[in-house]
């Protein structure tokens, strides 16, 4: 018991130190650790904000079992870039009532950030942003994907995203007829 | 770590284990929403079985003027049926927004294009309805006549005021609106009353009725409505435009509309009294029929 108590006290001091730290440590599903600014995490992610406020942040790395290391690296990268970028008036105002505010075009750095991602990384990041309640990141990533679809024919979209057409010829013909009015170019 | 682990040390682009189609529906909805075009979103229905109905849950419908121009260009009854089918397939429980941009000159029955969408909005819209009228484009030879008389059905438990005009009002119209208070029917000025397709109106709360131009006593049925109106405004068809077809019929037919109601608090009538180059007695007789019906 004596020994245990001593260890408990040490734990306690460490927790106090943790509370004073200005970063949080996140652990990916495959066990990799990432540090991110506490302020940025709380501001950009409703889920992390809740965990920080509720004291469920683990000094040894808060487990995020849903998120792989590549996606988490991108999340952390986004948070850090966001913290470093001078927040524009547009972003400040849009964060107040995000649900009702119309979508704000990605800023230049956000555009560059999603442009360098592979498709797989982009889809993983969409899911990670959704899981962490990061509305802005979710919007920016979904916007990027929608841009890849915009103005393209179904064949082109299938090619871009490697989608296999599993309709029978008859089914496809039936659907095409039903949706004829939605097809502009053919 | 666990079985559900999707994380990878590095991207493996040679292995197709991840695709847009593996995203959950609610995220695909966000992506389709960002397209900001319902026709674009609907087109994804042909990609694969996975995508068949994804668009139908997107809680935002938006149509730009391209849709309007395009649909008018390939207009046919099968197109209208297609739109109806798609509206029927739309299954998002509530709509946050419906936005339509219409070219002002797109044709009399442009409203017919949007009637199915508006009907959907009347049932599910919980947010914003935006209808924008854009300036007409350079003149084009759209075969507007083709769209005249497309049947329109409006059923809504919440609709209070309704205005139908031009090509829509000329066609077959069914209105079933338990809370409708004001109805404005403006048919085309020169529509021959004998060519009226007929309107069936069930509006038990109706208290203001504005009826312009042709009225057909048997085809137009204001079935489920009170016999006491707060306001009735009637504008009979232009007398001269019908002179050679059915001038005797016009006043008689319009008078049937007055007979439909027992009490009217405010009555407004617009009439052109023909000048004396017509057979005056005949004309007076026609209009005395109409006025007699009022008194």
UniProtKB/TrEMBL annotation, chain A:
Residues 136-182 form the SKP1 component dimerisation domain. The keyword Cytoplasm does not apply. Pfam families: Skp1, Skp1_POZ. Pathway: Protein modification; protein ubiquitination. It comes from the Eukaryota. Residues 1-21 are annotated as: Disordered. Residues 23-84 form the SKP1 component POZ domain. The keyword GTP-binding does not apply. Keywords: Ubl conjugation pathway. SUPFAM superfamilies: POZ domain, Skp1 dimerisation domain-like. One of its GO terms (biological process) is protein ubiquitination. Involved in ubiquitination and subsequent proteasomal degradation of target proteins. Together with CUL1, RBX1 and a F-box protein, it forms a SCF E3 ubiquitin ligase complex. The functional specificity of this complex depends on the type of F-box protein. In the SCF complex, it serves as an adapter that links the F-box protein to CUL1. Part of a SCF (SKP1-cullin-F-box) protein ligase complex. PANTHER family: SKP1. Belongs to the SKP1 family. This is SKP1-like protein.
UniProtKB/TrEMBL annotation, chain B:
Pfam families: F-box (PF00646). Residues 20-58 form the F-box domain. This is F-box domain-containing protein. It comes from Digitaria exilis. The lineage of its organism: Eukaryota, Viridiplantae, Streptophyta, Embryophyta, Tracheophyta.
């Amino acid at each position: 018991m004596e020994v245990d108590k001593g260890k408990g006290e040490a734990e306690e001091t460490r927790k106090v130190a943790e509370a004073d730290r200005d970063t949080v440590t996140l652990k990916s599903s495959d066990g990799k650790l990432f540090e991110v600014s506490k302020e940025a995490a709380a501001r950009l992610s409703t889920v992390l904000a809740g965990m920080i406020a509720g004291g469920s942040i683990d000094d040894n790395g808060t487990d995020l079992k849903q998120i792989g290391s590549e996606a988490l690296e991108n999340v952390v990268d986004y948070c850090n870039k966001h913290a470093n970028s001078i927040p524009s008036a547009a972003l400040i105002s849009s964060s107040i009532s995000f649900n009702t505010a119309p979508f704000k075009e990605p800023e230049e750095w956000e555009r560059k950030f999603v442009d360098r991602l592979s498709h797989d990384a982009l889809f993983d990041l969409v899911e990670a942003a959704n899981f962490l309640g990061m509305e802005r990141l979710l919007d920016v990533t979904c916007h990027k994907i929608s841009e890849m679809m915009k103005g393209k024919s179904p064949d082109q979209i299938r090619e871009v995203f490697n989608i296999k057409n599993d309709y029978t010829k008859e089914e496809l013909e039936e659907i095409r007829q039903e949706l004829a009015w939605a097809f502009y170019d053919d | 770590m666990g079985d559900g682990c999707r994380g990878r040390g590095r991207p493996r682009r040679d292995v197709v284990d991840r695709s847009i189609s593996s995203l959950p529906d609610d995220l695909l909805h966000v992506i389709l929403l960002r397209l900001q075009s319902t026709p674009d979103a609907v087109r994804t229905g042909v990609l694969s079985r996975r995508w068949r109905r994804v668009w139908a849950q997107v809680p935002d419908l938006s149509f730009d003027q391209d849709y309007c121009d395009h649909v008018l260009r390939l207009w046919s009854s099968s197109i209208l049926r297609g739109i109806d089918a798609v509206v029927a397939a739309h299954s998002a429980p509530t709509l946050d927004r419906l936005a339509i941009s219409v070219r002002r000159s797109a044709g009399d029955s442009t409203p017919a294009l949007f009637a199915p969408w508006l009907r959907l909005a009347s049932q599910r819209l919980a947010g914003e309805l935006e209808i924008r009228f854009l300036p007409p484009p350079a003149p084009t030879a759209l075969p507007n006549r083709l769209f005249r008389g497309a049947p329109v059905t409006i059923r809504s438990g919440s609709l209070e005021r309704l205005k139908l005009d031009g090509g829509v009002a000329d066609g077959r119209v069914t209105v079933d609106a338990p809370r409708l208070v004001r109805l404005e029917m403006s048919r085309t000025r020169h529509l021959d009353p004998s060519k009226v397709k007929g309107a069936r109106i069930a509006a038990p709360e109706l208290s203001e009725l504005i009826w312009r131009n042709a009225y057909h006593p048997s085809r137009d049925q204001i079935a489920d409505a009170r016999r006491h109106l707060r306001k009735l405004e009637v504008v009979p068809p232009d007398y001269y435009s019908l002179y050679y077809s059915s001038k005797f019929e016009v006043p008689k037919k319009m008078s049937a509309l007055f007979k439909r109601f027992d009490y009217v608090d405010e009555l407004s009538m617009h009439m052109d009294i023909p000048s004396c180059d017509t057979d005056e007695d005949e004309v007076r007789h026609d209009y005395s029929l109409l006025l007699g019906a009022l008194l």
